[in-house]
## 1
Amino acid sequence: MDLDTLAQQFLNALQLGSLYALVALGYTMVYGVLLLINFAHGDIFMFGAFIGVFGAFVLGLPFLPTLLLSMIITALLGITIEKVAYKPLRHASRLSAVITALGVGLLLENGMLALTGADPRRYPDNFFAASVTIGDTTLELSVRIVIIAVALILFLCLYYIVQRTKWGMAMRAISYDKFAVPLMGVSQDRIITLTFVLGAGLAAAAGILWGVAFTASLSPYMGLRVGWKAFIAAVVGGIGDIRGAALGGLLLGFVEIFVVALGSPIGISSSYRDLVGFALLLVILVVRPTGLFGVARRQKL
Amino acid sequence: MLFQVRDLHVSYGNIRAVRGVSFEVDKGEIVTLIGANGAGKSTILNTIAGLQAPDSGTITYQDEPIAGIPAHKIVERGMVLVPEGRRIFGNLSVYENLRLAGFRLDEPVLKQRLSDALKRFPQLESRQHQRADTLSGGEQQMLAVGRALVTGGDMMLLDEPSMGLAPILVREIFNILKNINRDGKTILLVEQNAHQALRLADRTYVLETGVVTLSGRSADLIQNADVQKAYLGG
Ligand SMILES: Nc1ncnc2c1ncn2[C@@H]1O[C@H](COP(=O)(O)OP(=O)(O)OP(=O)(O)O)[C@@H](O)[C@H]1O
Ligand SMILES: [Mg+2]
């Protein structure tokens, strides 16, 4: 592999990894706060991508407004799912919550299928013309670099919220010991709502960026594989920790890209890349059962 | 009367943990509820604080019924609980624990309360940026009380603050509680450590298996033969 190809693959890996990371953050935050694996999260990602199609085609919006619109609408979807499907089950068994989450996912997939038909969608060609004009020189930006940059900015915003604001402190506090949080005057429901807003918003952004990165890939089922991969990334990173989700996502991106890049010259088919992803999960969990950043938590009450 | 509990019943499934308990706390008092393991002390405090729903009975604070109000709203009414086992957030820094306790406060009030709490517990000041789970047991208890000071309110409920602490630390904590009370806070203290609690409190209620069996001025109860036998080791 020459240096230029290596650099290209490096960018590919960063791009794929940062998209996995954005989705993984939603899994990890919801788990941290509710001890619930939101198996509908991949489909929330898909929903965000389709709201992007709506914004770009129907409303004719450019990239950034579409991104914002989709993040907001998808956040509302996240809140609705939590209030309607998960909240009534907060004291029910773990299994009924998992089954409900899978049901919500199916509902979203089939609802979107009914709404939009089975044809694969893609964003308009001029949707994402990333260029900056400084004086009279126009600089064309690589799509990949913009995607990586947007993902990084979103992650930094989230990191700031979680680490520096009182809302973030409350989210971290709930993940440690939810019993004492209301005694601080904090409404647990509001923290849970915030968690779904952040998780779904990031998933929506990832959905749009995914559609830009891998054109002709928008289908109502697009959230299934990405959702599973991002879930793996969250577990590998140590579910409940946002740095872990980011790192796990990047790691998975690198592994998948380089399995294909290094494997195909020596005859390893690219269809092995999913297998390698799952194998990675197993190996890391055997060595570190709590994931890269995971720590034992206070026992759930 | 600042605070009143009337005929309170609380149960877990078919375990009746609290069976018709009544007591009251006047403004500025320190009142203690003493009782052995499983007597229902924590159940009573958690119910007052809104963490648990009572089966029946009334709880009145500042002339308003508060039974059944959720915990985060009870805080708004000006009542704060330091729960059993301290329950500090070990994954947050000492500062973050205190900051979170002032979740509802505006910036100027928050600043004032934070600096007051740190003045009361100078040990915490130098450890502000340390993770709270690296604190010793005594320091964790101080953080738990410090948090309650930041949260604020006229009345503080404490569930066994002496738990697991060396006698010298218990005395230190109880002295601090005395000072907090002098500065105007009404205190309802639940304890197994009857020695220290009786010495600190103005009045005492003795709780046995969910029922109040004895009550009176602490100074009188210390002389009571039954109390001496059951709670003061003879
Ligand atoms: N979550 C629960 N589920 C079922 N029973 C409970 C629960 N919590 C307490 N109990 C029971 O209720 C009764 C009172 O318990 P509580 O914790 O209020 O006692 P306590 O006086 O605080 O005891 P300790 O001094 O050990 O803290 C006990 O019989 C206990 O076993
Ligand atoms: Mg107790």
## 2
Amino acid sequence: MLFVWREAFAGLRRNLTMSIAMVITTAISLGLLGAGLLAVRTIDRTEELYYSLIAVQVALDEPTSAGDPDCSGPVCTGLRDELEANPLVAGVEYESRDAAFERFQRIYAGQSILQLVRPQSLPATLRVTMADPLRGTEIVQQFTGRPGVRNVVDQRSTVQDLFSFLGSVRNATFGLAIVQALAALLLISNTIQLSAFTRRTEVGIMRLVGATRWYTQVPFLIEAVVTGLVGAVLATGGLVLGKLFFLDRLLSGRLLANTIPPVGMSDVLLYVGPVLVIVGAVIATLTGYVTLRLYVRT
Amino acid sequence: MIRLENVTKVYPTSTRPALDDVSVEVERGEFVFLIGPSGSGKSTLLRLLLREDVPNEGNVWVANWNVGRLASRRVPRLRQRMGVVFQDFRLLPNKTVAENVAFALEVIGKPRHTIRTVVPEVLDLVNLAGKADRMPSELSGGEAQRVAIARAFVNRPLVLLADEPTGNLDPETSTGIMTLLERINRTGTTVVMATHDRQIVDSMRRRVVELSSGKLARDDSRGVYGTGR
Ligand SMILES: Nc1ncnc2c1ncn2[C@@H]1O[C@H](COP(=O)(O)OP(=O)(O)O)[C@@H](O)[C@H]1O
Ligand SMILES: [Mg+2]
């Protein structure tokens, strides 16, 4: 048993350049796969976050916003009652012009945009939480153009752009991961063939003194699996660095803070890391096995 | 120990058989010279015994194995009970003398403590105890062949096959190799040695099996190389 390990590492050392290339390619493809998995995870979280927050906003027109701050007039109460009676609607909240302004001040505290906004430029709104967030457009259609209504906005359609952006990031990452995985596969296969070729004398002697096929081939398999594992560990390390020095900054920056939830270290180490180790080991083993079966006759 | 029954071997690339209806039997513990000019089929016969190839016709028996019909997964077992040395030694250049010998035991999964005791013993037997840590490139031809013999013998094979083991050596060194093979034969190991070295065969007076163009030409129990050559 010791023997086959020694042989495997001797093999990795002998073709050091190839081994390094093989490890790097594997690491890159697994890293991309990992990034894709993180993207999926983040998208799921973001969606969850948003669907609990998003609503359909029914903005009231200027006379109603200015003249009925408590939503006690017939126009405002009529709209509210009708919304509350609608089976698609889970709840309705009234937000007056002043309340909207206060919230606005809170969100943009210390930012120059505050200077530009007066309470008069904000409408009073009825915030409609949907029983089914996917059917907001029906409310939009029903209430657009009604008396007292300035406009109706389904926040989901705004958020949709963000999701489709995240989705395409994910798809691109997976696409690259697949291309890279293919390169890694070919490289592993090629390295095993090369390794088997450089060691043909040795393997010939092994066979002659009665080594089983298992004994002659397991070192090559170990070479492949070690490559896969080292690649997976490097990929996970790369993702940790990427998280610390890129994602964390990006997601806490002004642009995306509170828009996309941060990626946790546990996502990288406890979820993606193990997946990459398993995928790396399995793919390397299969590649090694198939290569030995098809190309290496010993 | 070894029995060939009407064995014919034709290589796919040639029309003339390399072995043509050869029947021969070797008892346990015998020492047999397999002689004949180049191309007469000596190596082919040894290859069949090792199951490096299979005969087209006839049966090859070694101990209780029907070698030609052996399932390929059983071949390692057969080879573990046979030792083989070649004209070109076939040592691993990147391993020391001791490692080359140990290799034969490692690859068949022998435990390490066994290897640690057995390897020095066999190196002692071939008079190379002092050179255990040398690399093959630092050895003379005779020494390299003794390492190869040590490797072939270390697992105490039933049969030792030698394919022109003295082919690359000068006469004096060859004598040393022959002494060693005789010593191994005296431990009860059957030895079959292919050679066309007339001097060695004549001096040893052992059984001689002669091949000529793949046919069995002669089988003398205490033979010489032959007349008129
Ligand atoms: N692998 C092979 N393929 C085709 N022909 C072979 C092969 N090996 C040996 N031969 C032929 O078989 C015959 C016997 O060869 P061999 O057994 O090597 O003879 P020897 O060892 O007595 O010199 C020769 O004619 C040789 O050319
Ligand atoms: Mg020959």
